[in-house]
Design goal:
This protein is of the alpha+beta class and 93 residues long. 42% of the residues lie in helices and 31% in strands. The strands form 2 sheets. It has a 3-stranded antiparallel β-sheet with strand order 1-2-5. A two-stranded antiparallel sheet has the order 3-4. Strand 3 and strand 4 form a beta hairpin. Helix 1 packs across helix 2.
């Protein structure tokens, strides 16, 4: 589903215009981004949580050159689905 399709579906489901749905989605994404940048975890009940994860520096072995290379650490965003969402994705397990 593309962003445009998502916005149209959101507008239809929420009974709003596509402009309002687009503004709502932009505000939602900006809010999550701001919270992540402030080291806050965003938990959406029944959906999951978004949090900032820091990956440590590591060494990688290149078998072609038989040499080790250092991969610098990085920061990324992790999403952990809620138990309710997992149960919907895997019914009967």
């Amino acid at each position: 589903m593309t962003q445009k399709q998502f916005i149209n579906a959101l507008a239809k489901n929420a009974g709003m215009t596509t402009t309002e749905a687009s503004d709502t989605m932009d505000a939602f994404a900006a809010l999550i981004t701001d919270c992540i940048l402030d080291d806050q975890t965003v938990m959406l009940q029944g959906f999951g949580s978004f949090e900032k994860k820091t990956k440590a520096e590591r060494k990688m072995y290149n078998p072609s050159t038989k040499d080790y290379r250092t991969i610098p650490g990085s920061t990324t965003i992790a999403f952990k689905p809620s138990t309710l969402l997992k149960d919907k994705l895997n019914p009967g397990q």
